[in-house]
Design the sequence.
């Protein structure tokens, strides 16, 4: 149980004992040190409910509140807030337990089988900057959930089916006859653009492409073999990006739209059997009463087009069925652009109404906004083209390399490149993850690569700063007791104890920026502690204890950044 949960449970019991059994204990970290370490502010709402004086009720709550061994001081503030000052000895024991455990003594929740669907590019084209947010937000959530002991299934639901593959296959056959296909395939993006021009301008070619789509969906062996070439080349591009990004997606996590092709007709029949399917202008549609169009009529969700083709809604429904029936998932997180919100709401609604998933299976859309350029428009090249993700990451490394070379010109080239990789990629990822995912954000090289403020380089440097302390320390006792006497020591210890609350909040809410905010606060408090409480100049038990707090800070920073998929270095 986290500290916040522990205190909340005790306050809840005290509220009930004070005559407010239906009241809700609202316990949060205090906003200022003078307010204590935590503050309970559920008393006023309870007093209003009971029609009594808030301070009088707060007195009754205090009389019933059992925080022995947890809090050293309790006080009523304002109209009925309860300020809770944690006992330094309690914090010291929490710190010692965290130091002795690989997972910082976090109490693991009941494990769930959870899927995180993320990245999910359309194949036959290179990944672009629009794939960045899904890839890194999804990976961070998968890491956090795995850290907490959940059985995490990563899913890369790639777009590997449809008209574009008929178009590409037609061109591949044409180029093969001319002996240039392999050369073209080396640049998949150029190959795709060429196929698209042919498709748009040459009706005969377009008809051949449509024929290949039919053959592909029908399982024609020759066309399937060509299709696999495109899939393999596309996935090689994706894997190169994932390695560069330090994202944990591999081939084993890929299950594309094609995997559900055989089930689409079954989905159609099952929806028909449930009475949900209607025909509208030749298409098969599900009308949902809870979603209205501008005329106030139920919106129709197309399951099958009038030409017999299926949409990705149908594929997603099939995927949900598979995930429930075959994978036995309890929770599925879809890390997809916020512009798809209506699609997911409707798809989830259809799955539940049709009985394809039980109420116990959680389906969640982890929506995110757009990465914008400094002009306030979606991030593009100077010429207005799409920015390839691999190019962006290479530029990040090069910019970081220039900073490292200026700061430490004497470093060996290999070290400069290694630091540039860790700092550059970390900066791009953290700049994104530190923002509330719901909103858009402006991409700015100077801000994200700064060693000041809430950035990855600042946190990475904070970690190396702690490591430098240990390089200077001589005899470090890793089993020494933690003793907390100074205010800066206590503030740091409180923050260290809140790591568990933060990680669990991220797992529950799907907001990685909570962890970023926490790590930045921790690094800031360590800096204050470092200035106020000399470590190497102190002696004996005091020095040993402060080294322990420094060690736990480094361990927590490293663990937290790793959960975000960001590396650290012992020296920069």
Sequence:
């Amino acid at each position: 149980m986290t500290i916040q949960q522990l205190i909340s449970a005790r306050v809840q019991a005290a509220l009930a004992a004070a005559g407010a059994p239906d009241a809700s204990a609202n316990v949060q970290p205090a906003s200022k040190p003078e307010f204590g370490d935590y503050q309970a502010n559920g008393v006023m709402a309870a007093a209003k409910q009971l029609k009594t004086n808030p301070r009088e009720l707060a007195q009754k709550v205090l009389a019933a509140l059992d925080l022995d061994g947890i809090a050293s001081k309790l006080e009523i503030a304002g109209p009925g807030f309860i300020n809770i000052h944690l006992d330094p000895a309690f914090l010291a024991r929490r710190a010692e337990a965290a130091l002795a455990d690989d997972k910082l003594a976090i109490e693991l929740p009941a494990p769930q089988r959870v899927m995180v669907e993320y990245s999910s590019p359309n194949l036959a084209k290179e990944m672009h900057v629009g794939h960045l947010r899904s890839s890194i937000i999804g990976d961070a959530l998968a890491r956090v959930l795995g850290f907490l002991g959940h059985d995490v299934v990563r899913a890369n639901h790639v777009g590997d089916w449809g008209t574009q593959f008929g178009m590409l296959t037609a061109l591949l056959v044409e180029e093969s006859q001319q002996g240039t296909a392999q050369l073209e395939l080396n640049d998949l993006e150029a190959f795709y653009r060429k196929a698209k021009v042919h498709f748009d301008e040459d009706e005969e070619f377009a008809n051949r492409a449509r024929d290949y789509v039919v053959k592909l969906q029908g399982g024609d062996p020759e066309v399937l073999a060509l299709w696999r070439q495109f899939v393999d080349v596309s996935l090689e591009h994706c894997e190169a990006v994932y390695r560069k990004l330090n994202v944990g997606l591999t081939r084993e996590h890929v299950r594309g739209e094609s995997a559900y092709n055989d089930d689409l007709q079954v989905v159609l029949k099952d929806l028909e059997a449930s009475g949900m399917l209607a025909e509208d202008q030749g298409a098969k549609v599900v009308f949902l009463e809870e979603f209205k169009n501008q005329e106030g009529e139920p919106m129709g969700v197309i399951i099958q087009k009038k030409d017999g083709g299926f949409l990705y809604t149908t594929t997603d429904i099939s995927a949900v069925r598979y995930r429930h029936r075959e994978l036995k998932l309890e929770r599925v997180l879809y890390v997809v652009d916020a512009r798809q919100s209506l699609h997911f709401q409707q798809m989830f609604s259809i799955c539940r109404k049709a009985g394809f998933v039980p109420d116990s299976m959680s389906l969640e859309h982890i929506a995110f906004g757009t990465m914008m350029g400094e002009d306030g428009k979606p991030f593009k090249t100077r010429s207005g083209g799409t920015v390839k993700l691999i190019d962006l990451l290479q530029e990040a490394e090069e910019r970081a390399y220039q900073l490292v070379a200026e700061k430490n010109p004497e470093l060996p080239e290999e070290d400069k490149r290694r630091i540039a990789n860790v700092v550059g990629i970390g900066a791009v990822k953290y700049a994104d993850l530190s923002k509330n995912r719901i909103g858009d954000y402006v991409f700015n090289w100077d801000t994200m690569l700064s060693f000041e403020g809430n950035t990855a380089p600042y946190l990475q440097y904070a970690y190396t700063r702690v490591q430098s302390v240990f390089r200077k320390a001589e005899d470090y006792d890793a089993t020494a007791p933690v003793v907390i006497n100074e205010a800066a020591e206590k503030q740091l210890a409180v923050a260290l104890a809140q790591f568990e609350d933060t990680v669990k909040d991220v797992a529950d809410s799907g907001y990685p920026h909570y962890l970023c905010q926490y790590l930045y606060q921790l690094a800031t408090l360590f800096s204050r502690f470092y200035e106020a409480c000399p470590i190497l100049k102190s002696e004996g038990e005091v020095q040993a204890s402060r080294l322990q707090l420094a060690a736990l800070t480094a361990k927590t920073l490293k663990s937290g950044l790793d959960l975000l998929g960001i590396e650290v270095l012992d020296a920069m």
User: Anything to note?
Assistant: The longest strand covers residues 283-292.
